[in-house]
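Hi,

I'm pasting everything inline rather than attaching a file, because the server keeps stripping attachments. The sequence lines come first, and each chain or strand is labelled.
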Amino acid sequence: MKNFLKPLLLPICALAATAVTARAQAPVPSPVSASSSLASAPTPGAANNNTTAPLPPPPTPSVPADGGTTPAPSKAVWSEVRVNGPYIAMTFDDGPSAALTPGLLDLLKQKGVHVTFFVLGSLAKDHPEILRRAVAEGHEIANHSWDHPNLGKMPDESVSSQLNRTKDIITAATGKPCDLLRPPYGSMTALQRHWFHDQLGYKIILWSVDPLDWKDHNPSLITRRLVDGARPGSIMLAHDIHKTTIEAMPAVLDELLAKGFKFVTVSELLAMELPPDPKKASSSSPSRPPRPSLAPGVPATINGSVEPMPGPTPALPAAAPSPSATPKRN
Ligand SMILES: [Zn+2]
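And the predicted assembly:
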């Protein structure tokens, strides 16, 4: 198996290093973010220490999607995007919520803001009309699995089912397939990262600004974290299944618009991506100190992807007014 892995690990490690480099150019000072976690996690040996990873069976595991003809693997994972201009992508996970998403769409329409929804297939199947409306109003729909498992701990067949069933629901509802994937909790093994991108054709989208809205049901706090964390190229995380998140959005949008930020979908943001700065000099973002470490109880690591994970982490407040029966994060 080690011989089998070797040709994969080098490009994977190169990907991780590339991602860290890119993030280091425009750090985002959010209290907890995927970027901060990732920036400290991947090491050249990280992929070798993959004890949680089921081994996905890519059809041609030793041959990258580009046929192996290019000298370096293409980028697979984005937590933020290097852009020239005040563009940011707001993203909403874990919906659609019949109770909350339509109201959010009303607000987004009123503000002229386009966002990206990372939906769960299990919810989207019952509300294709919400997906259709979102697309009709300029938003983007993307894959967040069927019912929010930790993909990094699932058998390959189950992972395939999670992604394919959701993709089918999205395609049926919107008429267009999606090529953006956000694994629940940002969790995936190194081999899955390769599989999702090179074999299944997904761009894997994490985030750089995390308001922790799944944990802190406080609109003011959510607003501050999002507004203060935003930088050009930021990918902003939120969840349209929490009432307090929706309540925060008018102020979030107003304040970010007032600061001159322009909202685009994730695909639009990716289309603006600049090549890596060879000088690694700070461009539009001021130079900032390293990110603070993760908050207690939040991190969990799977192959360099560090996110809030299910398990013995603090539970949501009992009074959490979420329409979702199960607390979910990212
Ligand atoms: Zn999620």
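The chain has ten helices and ten strands.

If the labels don't parse on your end, tell me and I'll reformat.
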